[in-house]
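Q: Convert this sequence to structure tokens.
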Amino acid sequence: MTNIVENKVTLTGTVASEKPASLMRKLCKHWSHKLEVQYDEVRGEVNFGTGSCELDASQSGVLAIRVNAPDPETAGRLREVVERHLERFAVHETLTFQWSAIENS
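A:
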């Protein structure tokens, strides 16, 4: 998958989940109707045009998230969109996200 923008900001996050792979697949399937999405059983990537999101559910009990964007504002908006959608699909779970930022050059 090719990003349309040059990514200067990367946010990495994790969220504990009872079923991280199922959660990731639901999210990717949902977005695949409107966005460029690739996913398999444990990894997914979503291209928003203004940035991208990589999802990794290969570790038991944890969904790793990586948001790439051209600037901090866009990265923050994409992070919020990812969080809101994951919370919507997390049936019977309360998700707690942990994020950190990486400034790319």
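The longest strand covers residues 9-16.
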